[in-house]
Structures are given as structure tokens and as C-alpha cells.
């Protein structure tokens, strides 16, 4: 008769001894061959950067058109507000949820370019640009 030993942690990929018979069952991770490391998703970072760039371009164009100096609401400034403040933050939320699910993997490796910091900085730039667009819209509404 064999004495059962303590099982390795769940999901470690090591075979587990089951019962008194001494038989092994493989958890499923160890028999798939090579599995690449999991990294931070880059597509959501590209979405955040796209929202920030579009918002900055719309804000710059609205500034060149003297948005907020008259009582008419600039659609460029309004678009900058929507893209920078709303869509950019939605893209950032999407990035954080995908990144947290990747971090939960045991094979997670963070790249050397620190994508979480890059995503925060780019999202803040887009949000600030959207804030300037909202300021232009508020100025136009205040002149009415």
C-alpha cells in the first residue's frame, strides 16, 4: 500500500498522483508541447493611440478655426471631446481588461517597453485633448 503524497499546485502542469493505487493523471497542460509566453495585448494600445491622435488632430483643427470664440458650437471640438474623453477611455478600459486576463496566465511576460505605462500616458494625452475640446464647446455654449 502506498501513501498518497500532497498534490502539486493546480494548473502547474505536473502530473498528480491520485488515490492509493499510485496512478497518475495529467492535468492537460504538460501534454500540449511548446506554449509561447503570454504578453500584453497590443491591439488595444493601438486603439488608445488612434483615439488620442484623432482627438489631438480635431482639437488642433478646432483651435485653428477659433472654436469657442463665437456662439456656434464647433463640431470639430465636439468630435474631439467624444473621441478623446469617451472612446479613448473605453479603449483604455478594454486594454486593462485584456491585460489583466493576460496577467492571470502563469506564462505572462511584460515587455521591456512597459506597455501599461505607455497605455496610461497615451490615454491621458487623449483625455486631455478631449478636455480641451469640451472646453471649446463650453465656451461656445456660454456665449449664447
| Quaternary structure | single chain
Number of strands: 2
Number of helices: 3
- The tally of structural domains comes to 2
Q: Could you tell me the mean pLDDT?
A: 85
Distance linking N and C termini: 90 Å
Structural write-up:
This protein is mainly alpha-helical and 144 residues long. It is 55% helix and 4% strand. A hairpin with a 4-residue loop joins strand 1 (16-18) and strand 2 (23-25). The longest helix has 29 residues, at 75-103. The protein is elongated, with a radius of gyration of 26 Å.
Blueprint of the fold:
Elements: E1 16-18, E2 23-25, H1 43-64, H2 75-103, H3 115-142
Antiparallel strand pairs: 1-2
Which structural traits does this protein have?
144 residues; 55% helix; two-stranded antiparallel ribbon; mainly alpha; 2 domains
A few lines on this structure:
By secondary structure, the protein is mainly alpha-helical.
Amino acid at each position: 500500500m502506498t501513501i498518497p503524497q500532497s498534490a502539486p499546485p493546480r494548473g502547474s502542469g505536473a502530473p498528480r498522483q491520485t488515490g492509493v493505487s499510485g496512478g497518475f493523471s495529467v492535468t492537460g497542460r504538460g501534454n500540449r508541447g511548446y506554449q509561447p509566453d503570454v504578453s500584453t495585448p497590443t491591439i488595444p494600445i493601438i486603439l488608445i493611440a488612434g483615439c488620442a491622435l484623432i482627438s489631438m488632430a480635431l482639437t488642433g483643427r478646432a483651435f485653428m478655426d477659433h472654436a469657442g470664440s463665437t456662439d456656434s458650437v464647433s463640431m470639430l471640438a465636439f468630435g474631439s471631446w467624444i473621441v478623446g474623453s469617451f472612446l479613448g477611455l473605453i479603449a483604455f478600459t478594454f486594454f486593462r481588461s485584456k491585460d489583466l486576463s493576460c496577467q492571470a496566465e502563469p506564462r505572462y511576460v511584460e515587455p521591456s517597453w512597459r506597455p501599461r505605462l505607455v497605455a496610461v500616458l497615451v490615454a491621458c494625452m487623449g483625455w486631455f485633448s478631449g478636455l480641451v475640446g469640451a472646453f471649446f464647446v463650453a465656451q461656445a455654449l456660454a456665449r449664447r
